[in-house]
């Protein structure tokens, strides 16, 4: 990569990301290209974003048409793309209404505020506790960070938002003990992403639903990573047959443009009044037109069947690998984790040399989140490359 990109980045950008040693300049379908012209097979999708791959013609057309018409409509005015996307999201989910934000963490912040306001309006003050789970990742802004129990992320920024308690993920009894009259909401990822690709058990989500109903707490599903078709269902909660009161969605929805959405039931929507929350850019027309394209394509039953088929194939092929380092292959749909007994950072680095992009989840899990348009031939190529990388790794 040209030194100037690396140098400028180091010189002018706050150093909060560990970056690969190259700059990406182009994308097409399953492939991205760096500034030296080297191509990579993308099994990270920009952390679960590019569901339709790169440079999708329909997204390009929708965005181009909209930006030429009007690029920004703030929320002091009505806007057709926003209204159309809201209708689509409600029609395709449990939700009655939506609140637009610009990112995943913002969608979580909105859900935190809605939970507190709902409890206060419905039951009076004092019902402020939020229950979240070990291994969770809900974002980096102040409220979302308080629900993300990673010492490394939280420690420098204490004191955090109070009244948050953590229970062990997938432990039905512990969660039941922790949810009580003071709980206003329970936040959970139906499939944990950053935490290592762990799916909730149906029992666990059912017991959370029961406990929330019993104590008048809201059940909030964070589907920022696992939603939008990633698991082979449009929403991961459909797989578990448990419905939330609120759900956060982001990442893949915008087709590469930033968006976050908090989906809510009518009962939650009713407590929010004029001026209770807001954002200048949220629900802008360009990203909403892109999101309509993604949602229409991803919600198609044929598309979702393809995701399930490719997910099964990817898991099968990974299970055939003979590396002694592989401890477990797990996941749902095209959200797949390969747990190893060694650190995965060098494997990801080796992937760069071999022309594949992979992600980590923690230090020992390879996280694979290919664009949902992945085909069997890409999976073959990817698994063969991973096999080669593992065979070059000392035992
Ligand atoms: N929640 C989950 C489950 C996520 O995976 C992420 C991002 O990785 C977030 C929230 C935060 O989203 P964003 O990075 O768009 O703020």
Quick summary:
This protein has 395 residues and is α/β, with parallel strands linked by helices. The protein folds into 2 domains: 5-56 and 301-391, Alpha-Beta Complex (Aspartate Aminotransferase, domain 1), CATH 3.90.1150.10; 57-298, Aspartate Aminotransferase, domain 2 (3-Layer(aba) Sandwich), CATH 3.40.640.10. It is built from 15 helices and 17 strands.
Keyword list:
395 residues; Aspartate Aminotransferase, domain 1; Aspartate Aminotransferase, domain 2; seven-stranded mixed β-sheet; four-stranded mixed β-sheet; binds pyridoxal-5'-phosphate
Describe this structure in words.
This protein is an alpha/beta fold and 395 residues long. It folds into two domains: 5-56 and 301-391, Alpha-Beta Complex (Aspartate Aminotransferase, domain 1), CATH 3.90.1150.10; 57-298, 3-Layer(aba) Sandwich (Aspartate Aminotransferase, domain 2). It has helices spanning 3-12, 45-48, 57-69, 80-91, 104-123, 142-146, 151-154, 172-178, 202-215, 236-240, 266-271, 285-298, 301-319, 345-354, 376-391, and strands at 24-28, 31-34, 39-42, 97-101, 129-133, 164-167, 183-188, 191-192, 198-199, 218-222, 246-249, 260-264, 326-332, 335-340, 356-357, 359-360, 365-368. The longest helix is centred in the N-terminal third of the chain and has 20 residues, at 104-123. The radius of gyration is 21 Å and the shape is globular. The mean pLDDT is 97. Bound molecules: pyridoxal-5'-phosphate. Residues 47, 103-105, 108, 137-139, 189, 193-194, 222, 224-225, 250 line the site of pyridoxal-5'-phosphate.
